[in-house]
Amino acid sequence: MDDLLSVNDLHVSYGLSRILHGISLNVRRGELVSLVGRNGVGKSTTMRAIMGLTPPRSGSVRWKGQEIARRKSHLNARAGIGYVPEDRRIFSGLSVWENLDVARLPAHDGIAAWDEARVFEFFPDLERFRDRKGGLLSGGQQQMLTIARTLMGNPELLLLDEPSEGLAPLIVANMREKIQELKAAGLSIILAEQNLDFVLALSDRCYVLEKGEIVFEGTAEELRNNTEVQDRYLHI
Amino acid sequence: MFSNPAFLTIQVLNSLSLAMNLFIIASALTLIFGVLRIVNFAHGAFYMIGAYVLYSVVGSFGETDLGFWTGVIAAGVVMAAVAYVVERFLLSRLYDKEHLLQLLFTFALVLIIKDAVIIIWGAPQYSVSFPPMLSGAVNLGITYYPTYLLFLCILGPLVAIGLWLGLEKTRWGRILRAARLDREMLGALGTDVTKVFSAVFVIGAAMAAIGGALAAPRVAVDPGMDALVIIDCFIIVIIGGIGSLWGSFVGALILGFLTVFGTLIFREWEIVLVYVMMIGVLLVRPWGLFGQPEAERH
Q1: Inter-chain touch B188–A93, beta carbons under 8 Å
Q2: Which DSSP string do the residues of A146-160 spell out, in sequence order?
Q3: Per-residue pLDDT tens over the stretch B96-114
Q4: A175 falls within a domain
Q5: Does pTM surpass 0.90?
């Protein structure tokens, strides 16, 4: 009952094609939960449905006990859900600082507020490019900016969609540290990833998805030891 | 005839005053398109409403400065109220529908507004005088020029700078620019994008009406005035680059000079000149002089 977020039997279709068939998952306060699986199994759609960007056909999404399925995304953002999209979606014509500024939302009680000073302290690279247009940043910088931008909204839960995608190994390692720090700062996180090492190093619990369904659920330790699930659903 | 400096000066100022009047209207059209992605055919009709409101206010106040400027403000306020109702209750239902429905809707508005104008004000042609404080002419040394038209020449750049500062230097402007680039992402970051759309449509419509009120003393106020201006505005926005503020500024200047000098040199062939120029621009830069190709927007 003390779940921060609980998703129950979520079904999503795009037109005639059914993407999610009854996804159920939950996140407790302070937890890092991963959605793992190959490309196109429904990880991003699950996040979009939680955020209110893709309305589910049926099922429930509860945030702190309140039903939010089909609620508009800006209300979910204001309620404390932060969305970091897979393709980063930086406002290319806005500077780094402007990207942060448009995402500013008041902090919730009892949580240390994010502002540009704290964000720049957290991602020192971004401060150097404060006035550079978002579209001119490198992939790694854009990934930092998209996370920093969402942090400006002072989320309690972060939906992180493939933060390691397309980044050089050194930057992936750095990203891993940053996510660990966010978790240590008290943020709850749902992480969608294909990179298994990344997932196992960070997660408390994992859900493995296949064709829009959850086929495995367990702790990171259990997933690490379950080579059968790894072979069947994760390795290429 | 161009060797006469007085004549040349007057023609240049005629071009500028026409261009700047059109800019105020076209910049609002490009703003609405940039954010809402809606081609607003009714923009000319909004301009016409502004001119008629001014005519009525001047009629009841008498031809005084107070009457004129009250009329200009009233044009903006009346149009803003109408636009708010139109956007909130009708247009907002079409945002996630296909573009054709949005086009049909704004085109329907053109017809409805035109009939409403004829019902309220009748079909005759009205004229409005310059406000007393700006009537008369200014001595420019080599020639005299109407004060009011000179005022329009100065007002245009001020509006451009004001809009630019608003877009670049205020949080509101930053949110508008972000909405132009990725409205869904902006919503997911906590901005109620429907409110942004509503505000942009209302502000854009009010600017068109104020542009119409300011145009009233230099044009004939009649139920056909919307058609002329909407074509000019579309040409300006297309050659300048859809969604670009400075594009519409430069586009307005090009159209102003082509119209005035084209008419002097080519007489009735002037209209051909404008379209040839538009085709030329689109051949070289299909996205307009200051626009960006669709693929590079993200």
Answers
A1: no
A2: HHHHHHTT--SEEEE
A3: 888 899 999 999 999 999 9
A4: yes
A5: yes
